[in-house]
């Protein structure tokens, strides 16, 4: 399907709004929330379902507490700011949407909320129920409990995760820049806008700079990572400027704005998406070239192909899979603990049973049904 048709047929849409779009320096901007509510309301009138992923709690907290608090960067301090700011942020949304007769529902997520399958499904059910009720879910990271090792990192990633969670057709990432440029346009005046991306390869990744502006965290790099996660899940992505929220209408009126990322044709199915993006990996498994080839042909990972292990993990945990050059190539659920894998890696399958005495030994280290390759080209090629 072409870009225009993909957008027109998108019923379920996730819109991510960056901090820089909601505030002017250290000023609240009521009218920004109102214009966002107007555009989202227009989409709802068109029969679309919309989930908002919003940043801005830290900025709200900072503005509310005033000058004295601006300097500190430590995590508990930012969490405190977010705690003050989140309710203010929601008040802005509540008031703005009520002008259009719409209700909003707050969803705060932390990585552990999607690590466990039951919680992952609960989050999905709640969002689905809100959508069925005609309520606009407004999602942010639960900053209070999210510390460095266990946080989504930025709301770009969170928006891709939410898209994967609810099977969104389209993810719109609104930022202060018109889309992906060939180089950071703040630094290079000759940078040009990339209009369409069919596959997120190393060239595309190399274009994006990592530093965000002001209250922002991820920069363009995290938006590209988010686009990668979403397109792998079968969701189309647009990165566009949200300086004017009227752009939301433009997108659906087939005006070609921003950068459009085509979804992968064979998007990862629901349960595998949870393994790929929801679960927190407990370790790393390194494999040889032969095993990599087998995985690319849709086969399971067997003990002879394992050449290294890192981390302590139990049977059933999620691990990241790396090739011999230490390139991350996928994820899967292991049938062996790290202790067991250290003993059996490299062994032929029949030798494994002699060495390990455990009952219910599976032949595969990772069964193909529990394994996801995340290299787009190899996956689709
Ligand atoms: N190749 C690129 N194309 C566009 N923007 C880029 C690129 N590389 C870096 N950037 C920077 O990324 C910024 C957007 O990211 P960020 O400030 O984190 O936004 P947000 O607050 O919306 O999440 C832009 O202002 C831009 O300067
Ligand atoms: N949870 C944080 C989000 C921080 C963040 O990702 O910001 P941004 O890069 O502007 O999307 C907040 O609400 O301030």
UniProtKB/TrEMBL annotation:
SUPFAM superfamilies: Carbamate kinase-like (SSF53633), PUA domain-like (SSF88697). It is found in: Cytoplasm. Belongs to the glutamate 5-kinase family. CDD domains: AAK_G5K_ProB, PUA_G5K. Catalyzes the transfer of a phosphate group to glutamate to form L-glutamate 5-phosphate. Keywords: Amino-acid biosynthesis, ATP-binding, Cytoplasm, Kinase, Nucleotide-binding, Proline biosynthesis, Transferase. PROSITE patterns: GLUTAMATE_5_KINASE, PUA. Substrate binds at residues 55, 143, 155. Pfam families: AA_kinase, PUA. One of its GO terms (molecular function) is glutamate 5-kinase activity. PANTHER family: GLUTAMATE 5-KINASE, ISOPENTENYL PHOSPHATE KINASE. This is Glutamate 5-kinase. The gene is proB.
């Amino acid at each position: 399907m072409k870009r225009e048709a993909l957008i027109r047929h998108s019923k379920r849409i996730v819109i991510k709004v960056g901090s820089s779009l909601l505030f002017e320096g250290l000023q609240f901007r009521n009218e920004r929330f109102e214009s966002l509510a107007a555009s989202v309301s227009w989409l709802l009138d068109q029969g679309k379902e919309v989930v908002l992923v919003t940043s801005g709690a830290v900025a709200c907290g900072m503005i509310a507490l005033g000058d004295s608090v601006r300097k500190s960067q430590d995590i508990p301090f930012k969490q405190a700011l977010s705690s003050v700011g989140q309710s203010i942020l929601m008040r802005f949304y509540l008031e703005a949407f009520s002008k259009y007769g719409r209700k909003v529902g707050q969803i705060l997520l932390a990585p552990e909320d999607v690590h466990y399958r039951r919680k992952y499904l609960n989050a999905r059910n709640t969002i689905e129920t809100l959508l069925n009720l005609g309520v606009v879910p407004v999602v942010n990271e639960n900053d209070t409990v999210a510390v460095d090792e266990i946080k989504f990192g930025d709301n770009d990633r969170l928006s891709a995760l939410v898209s994967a969670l609810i099977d969104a057709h389209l993810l719109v990432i609104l930022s202060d820049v018109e889309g992906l440029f060939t180089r950071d346009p703040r630094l290079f005046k000759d940078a040009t806008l990339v209009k369409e991306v069919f596959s997120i390869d190393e060239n595309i990744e190399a274009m994006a700079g990592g530093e965000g502006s002001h209250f922002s965290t991820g920069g363009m790099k995290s938006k590209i990572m988010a686009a990668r996660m979403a397109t792998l899940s079968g969701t189309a992505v647009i990165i566009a400027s949200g300086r004017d929220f009227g752009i939301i209408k433009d997108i659906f009126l087939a005006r070609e704005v921003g950068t459009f990322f085509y979804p992968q044709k064979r998007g990862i199915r629901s349960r595998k998406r949870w393994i790929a993006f929801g679960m927190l990996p407990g370790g790393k498994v390194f494999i040889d070239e032969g095993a990599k080839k087998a995985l690319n042909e849709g086969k399971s990972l067997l003990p002879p192909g394992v050449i290294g292990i890192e981390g302590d993990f139990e049977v059933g945990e999620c691990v990241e899979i790396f090739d011999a050059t230490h390139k991350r190539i996928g994820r899967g659920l292991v049938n062996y603990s790290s202790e067991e894998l250290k003993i059996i890696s490299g062994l032929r399958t029949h030798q494994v049973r002699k060495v390990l005495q455990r009952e219910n030994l599976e032949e595969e280290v990772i069964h193909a049904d529990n394994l996801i390759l995340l290299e787009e080209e190899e996956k689709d090629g």
